[in-house]
Design brief:
287 residues, 68% helix, globular
Length: 287
């Protein structure tokens, strides 16, 4: 059985395991039911975006969808256990729908308003539930932020696996990684907003640092393994992959902060240009 057939079988299993009919599953992931049927029958492929939506809706990872395991070796670094959503479980369906809805709502509110301006009562109101229901799943507001960070890690991991698993050329993969990290409008900008707030909390409260270190380490390892693969393929001439990774990730963070804080002249487009120039000069041609 090839990878595509395995993928279809896993998604069929999720459709059957989730409550509701197939049309409700299709609606939940934002896909026309006819297109879902064709993808499950093998007459069309699931797009990267669709794979991410399936994973998000079902509480699984794209790595599991494609490779049958959350820990399978893939084109991007796998999150450390401490950086995974606390509700992750080997059966892949342990994350309850109420908990998932609460986390998604809290994550969006934190990204939009800021961590310190979001109350548990605000999350409850947005979810149409009680504060007691929120506390049942998240005992404290700190735990909400911890899970919001873990959700950021999962979203990035899912997106990278979905987009990059079919790209063999390391140069093309690195450029795509940069593209997936630009703070454009929508989910990516919201992820950056949550990261900025986590950085602030980490600077003030050491209790956040272990989770943050595990989370940021996954991104660093992803860039590093891509650069090393490029050296092996002969497309990168960089002499010190670790140093190049440190500089590139620092440049991404710095430029991203400038975009989010509205520094005059900064934009996602200019950020892309700066990063592509750095990659060409320091990694492709060598430092």
């Amino acid at each position: 059985m090839d990878e595509t057939a395995d993928l279809r079988d896993r998604i069929r299993g999720l459709v059957k395991a989730m409550p509701g009919a197939q049309r409700e599953f299709a609606a939940a992931i934002g896909l026309d039911e006819t297109k879902l049927s064709k993808a499950l029958n093998g007459t069309r492929r699931f797009s990267p975006h669709e794979l991410v939506r399936v994973a998000e809706h079902c509480g699984v990872t794209v790595n599991w969808l494609l490779n049958g395991s959350d820990d399978a070796v893939t084109v991007t670094a796998v999150p450390a256990p401490a950086a995974r959503l606390a509700s992750d479980d080997p059966d892949h369906l342990a994350q309850s729908e109420p908990r998932r809805r609460i986390l998604e709502t809290a994550w969006a509110l934190i990204a939009e308003r800021g961590y310190h301006k979001v109350r548990i009562a605000d999350i409850a109101e947005a979810c149409g539930t009680s504060t007691a229901a929120i506390h049942y799943h998240f005992p404290s507001k700190t735990e909400v932020l911890n899970e919001a960070l873990r959700r950021n890690v999962k979203l990035a991991f899912d997106r990278q696996v979905a987009e990059l698993h079919s790209i063999s050329d390391a140069h093309e993969r690195l450029l795509r990684l940069v593209e997936l990290q630009l703070p454009t409008d929508g989910v990516l900008r919201a992820e950056w907003s949550v990261w900025l707030q986590v950085w602030n909390e980490v600077a003030l409260d050491p209790a956040f640092r272990d989770l943050y270190t595990d989370s940021i380490d996954r991104w660093y390892r992803t860039i590093a393994m891509t650069i090393r693969t490029g050296r092996e393929q002969g497309v990168f001439r960089v002499t010190d992959p670790d140093a190049a990774t440190t500089r590139l990730t620092a440049l991404i963070d710095g430029l991203g902060i400038q975009v989010l804080t509205g520094r005059p002249g900064s934009s996602a487009e200019s950020m892309r240009e700066h990063l592509r120039d750095f990659i060409e000069r320091s990694i492709v041609k060598g430092d």
